[in-house]
Amino acid sequence: MGSASKPKIGAVLLAAGAGRRLAGIAKALIRIEGVSLVQRRLLVLREAGVDTIVVVTGFARQAVEAEVRALVPRGPDTTVAYNAAYAQGLAGSVRVGLAALSEGIDAQGFDGILMALVDQPLIEASDLAALIAAFASRTGGHVLVPMVNGTRGNPVMLDEWARARVLASAPPLGVRDLIDREPALVHTWQTDNARFVTDLDTREDLERLASLTGWRVELPAQG
């Protein structure tokens, strides 16, 4: 595993969703200041020192994967895993990503695994660094969840035991299912950082982001 000074961190970037509340717009392709959300998330993960990234695609697969390929030559090991059953929900994409992340790693695996959402553009590398540090210093649990004023946030982090538990579960579980069904496995990290509970689900969320930041937000074509 990673050394005490530099833990070995993997990440699953979930970018498969169909944007139902955005009327069929792939959130991964929304551009902020000219850069797609999926590229923004990749750049932040890399800046935070993540060693290996799996991007899970589904809806608008070809366009999203083209955005990923444009960055792959620069940065850590990055691969793409396609979830053909993306319409069935997030849990399937989680499992596809965790399975792909485990391929080709050494027997000891990762010190921690980030489960990152593509639609959290306010989260910066420093936020992820704080999350990774909290995970490394936790006193118990296999999954760390940021908690902001009583609201559960993202990304969450898990260890190799939790990854194996999710992949071996029957019926199939996602990380959220594991958190809900087995709270004893969870360590909650209390923070006042509202970035962990800010995401983009609706047009109102996009308008609020543009108003808050002054960023130029551009939507891709529907479908």
What structural class is derived from the secondary structure elements? Answer: alpha/beta
The number of helical runs is: 7
What would you call the shape? globular
How many structural domains?
1
Q: Specify the CATH architecture.
A: Alpha-Beta Complex
Output the radius of gyration.
Answer: 16 Å
Distance between the termini: 42 Å
Strand content: 15-25%
Low-confidence runs of at least 5 consecutive residues: none
Largest sheet: 8 strands, mixed
**Helical amount among residues, as a percent range?**
25-40%
Q: Give the H and E element order.
A: EEEHEHEHEHEEEHHEHE
What's the level 1 CATH class? Answer: Alpha Beta
CATH topology: Spore Coat Polysaccharide Biosynthesis Protein SpsA, Chain A
Number of E-type strands:
11
What is the residue-averaged pLDDT? Answer: 92
Within CATH, the superfamily carries the name Spore Coat Polysaccharide Biosynthesis Protein SpsA, Chain A
What attributes does this structure have?
single chain, 223 residues, alpha/beta, Spore Coat Polysaccharide Biosynthesis Protein SpsA, Chain A, 8-stranded mixed β-sheet, 3-stranded antiparallel β-sheet, 32% helix, 21% strand
Task: List the SSEs and their pairings.
Elements lengths: L8 E7 L15 E2 L2 E2 H11 L4 E6 L3 H9 L7 E6 L7 H13 L9 E6 L7 H12 L6 E6 L2 E2 L3 E3 L1 H9 L6 H7 L4 E5 L12 H11 L3 E2 L5
Concise overview:
By secondary structure, the protein is of the alpha/beta class. Helix content is 32%, strand content 21%.
Written account of the structure:
Strands 1, 4, 5, 6, 7, 8, 9 and 10 form an 8-stranded mixed sheet that branches. Strands 3-2-11 form a 3-stranded antiparallel sheet. The chain is built from 7 helices and 11 strands. It is globular. The protein has one domain (9-218): Spore Coat Polysaccharide Biosynthesis Protein SpsA, Chain A, CATH 3.90.550.10. By secondary structure, it is of the alpha/beta class. It has helices at residues 37-47, 61-69, 90-102, 125-136, 160-168, 175-181, 203-213, and strands at residues 9-15, 31-32, 35-36, 52-57, 77-82, 112-117, 143-148, 151-152, 156-158, 186-190, 217-218. β2 and β3 (35-36) form a beta hairpin. The model has no long low-confidence stretch (mean pLDDT 92). The relative contact order is 0.18.
